[in-house]
Amino acid sequence: MILDTWAVRPASNVIHLRARRLRRRVMSMLLRRLVRDFAEWLRSLGQMVLRLARDLTVELLRRRDIRRAQRFDDRALADMGVGRSEIEHVVRRGRC
Asked: Residues with Cβ < 8 Å from 55, sequence gap 6 or more?
């Protein structure tokens, strides 16, 4: 009877080997997940930077257009149907 229970139990080196394999598999899964999450974060960061650069470019172009429109004299602005105080609104949002 006692000999049968010893035959069923794995040896300690087998237990250590199984534990090492399991640990290696778990670490591999965690590393893959970490790399995937990092790649997703990097992609979203890139998109945010591109969006910020696009918004900044649009704002700089609007400011350039506002400065150009402010150089017109009052008569030219009146011919366009825009008052001097309306220049920024018209450039940013268009005419109603």
From this structure: none
